[in-house]
Amino acid sequence: MSASKTVSKGSVNSTTIVTDDVDESSKPEFIYGGPFIKVEKPSPIIDTATPFNLELQGTFKKSFAYYSLKERLPVILTKIIDYLSREGAKIKSTHGASDEDIRSYIQYVTKLKNDLVTNKQYDLLTVDTPEARRWNQWIEALDIKHYFTNVWVFTECYVYRRLREGCELSKTLKNFDPFADQKQKSFEGSLELMCIVADKLVNMLSKSDKDKCKSDFVTLLKLCLWANKCDLSLSSGEQVFLNGNNADGKATASNIIDPFQMILDFKDKLLVDDTSKIVDQVTSKAEAMMKNLEAPASAVDGAISSPPETPAAEATDVPCPTKMTSPQHVMFDIVCDNAGYELFADLCLAHFLISQGIVQKIRFHVKNIPWFVSDVTPVDFKWVIDSCLKASYRREVPQQPTEAAEGEVPPEPEPPRVISADNLRALAEQWTKYVDEGTFVVLHDDFWTSPHVYRDMKRHAPSLYRQLQYAVALLFKGDLNYRKLLCEKNVPPTSGLEAALQGFLPAPVIAVRTVKADLICGLPKGKWDQLNALDDKWMQKGDFGVIQYCGKVEPLKVADRPCDQYGDVCRGAGCGPRTDM
Ligand SMILES: O=P(O)(O)OC[C@@]1(O)O[C@H](CO)[C@@H](O)[C@@H]1O
């Protein structure tokens, strides 16, 4: 490891990036009463991969966390700086910002990047909001407050939270999303894929027999999985093409990329496939819940579907969640990941579940603030549906001519295949209705943009935990959710999901994720070694995927803590009419 820091030019638009090792061992230190002298301190960086059963962190030099903090995240920050410099005029006119506002944000991001690459201690947030104060308490409670030395997920979340703070501190940039353009471009680049999927989805929506329904449900789960390849944080903002190789990934004049065909082509890359179990369990649990809702409360074994002693409750009031032990609706929850094509795929699954009558509501959990470049925010949720609604697309693809047998007249050429946005627009129209009538509910709890792993949700966000307990199942999309489900711990790859969740059991968990970080569970014995032998970077590329299920659930009892809104005076109802329970 070099004794002194070297600074070299980074690859992105000539912005300077510190590219040597994070090395704290040779910093001069002041000894009281003496001159500045060199004090050798042990380097925090260890030349190894993350050992099993430890949390991922940037100090393991052979881990993706190290590479990510050293190379990827600084590039993401540099791109924001470049974007602000390049598109300053546009940003100023959209947000009514001044040159000074843009300059201040650039300075803010530049300092953040320098602090990251030199492994400084986290700064406290300076905005004064209850949520920022909570962040500061979490930071203050840490034993280790350095970017590389603390747990990777904390550092990454902290960096995205700080990016937000830069906007919060500005008078004019409060609604600025530094990733909005990238998300938009990625959506536009996937338009043809969405048209192709929409054309097939319309044939899955009319009420079908049990077998077809099951096979379509399985297919849509797999569609959702491979849509998770389209993640702009892994690619540092570059557009991702679905069939792997970015250069070859574009559809050409005569070639169509069909996401349904990809499901078949990628069969061997799906390392854990619990889809059949998921479909059986979700459908039977949903059926049981539906019966429960239809039956009068007294007829249902032990279930209190409305709270006891609620004389003043309005018929339209939803009982207080602290007392309610069964939900008001049969609901399926999607903890979303990326906007654009991935959200589109989630909406397709949601639409299918509603139209087949499997559940009555879908709750989409999204991020409150711009997050990991391409994660869905409430604004993104709306523009994705609106953009589908307005989509205009048409391409005629010539069909391969059929060969004529020797001596026979060649058959008439097939007419070209027409790919258009007609069905896409029709679907989006229905999604708009679903949103308006509350069949699709968009929720954005602050917990999703906290640095906490899901084991700790009950402690940090008890109301959210309780809210999740009413779901038939929780579909966690993507790699970041997976890391938080596994408590950011490099568990032995053959350990089961239930053990890895460490007690996070609000409702059945479905984890759907392409592998983009070096942790995994549920693999068959020997598989991990076999994949490592073929490519030691296989866990960093998003080429492989898992669809995993844990059906173990903690029973939902009357809460032992008072109602969030009314405390001890809560009479069981009166928390206001809610659509999300
Ligand atoms: O959650 P997603 O979108 O599937 O992936 C998020 C991701 O790009 O971000 C992390 C690093 O920034 C990685 O774990 C992962 O590759």
TrEMBL record:
Identify the domain of life: Eukaryota
Q: Name one GO biological process term.
A: methylation
Single GO MF annotation: metal ion binding
Region: Disordered; residue ranges are: 396-415
Catalysed reactions, semicolon-separated = beta-D-fructose 6-phosphate = dihydroxyacetone + D-glyceraldehyde 3-phosphate; beta-D-fructose 1-phosphate + H2O = D-fructose + phosphate; L-glutamyl-[protein] + S-adenosyl-L-methionine = [protein]-L-glutamate 5-O-methyl ester + S-adenosyl-L-homocysteine
- What EC number(s) does the entry state? 2.1.1.-, 3.1.3.-
Query: What is one cellular component GO term in this UniProt entry?
Result: nucleus
List the Pfam families. Answer: ARMT1-like_dom (PF01937)
Q: Which UniProt keywords apply?
A: Hydrolase, Manganese, Metal-binding, Methyltransferase, Nickel, Transferase
Q: Which residues form the Damage-control phosphatase ARMT1-like metal-binding domain?
A: 69-528
Q: Which cofactor does it need?
A: Mn(2+); Ni(2+)
Q: What does this protein do?
A: Metal-dependent phosphatase that shows phosphatase activity against several substrates, including fructose-1-phosphate and fructose-6-phosphate. Its preference for fructose-1-phosphate, a strong glycating agent that causes DNA damage rather than a canonical yeast metabolite, suggests a damage-control function in hexose phosphate metabolism. Has also been shown to have O-methyltransferase activity that methylates glutamate residues of target proteins to form gamma-glutamyl methyl ester residues. Possibly methylates PCNA, suggesting it is involved in the DNA damage response.
What does the entry note on its domains?
Subfamily III proteins have a conserved RTxK motif about 40-50 residues from the C-terminus; the threonine may be replaced by serine or cysteine.
Q: Which family does it belong to?
A: Belongs to the damage-control phosphatase family. Sugar phosphate phosphatase III subfamily.
What is the name attached to this protein's record?
Sugar phosphate phosphatase
Origin organism is Bombyx mandarina
Gene that this sequence comes from? LOC114249373
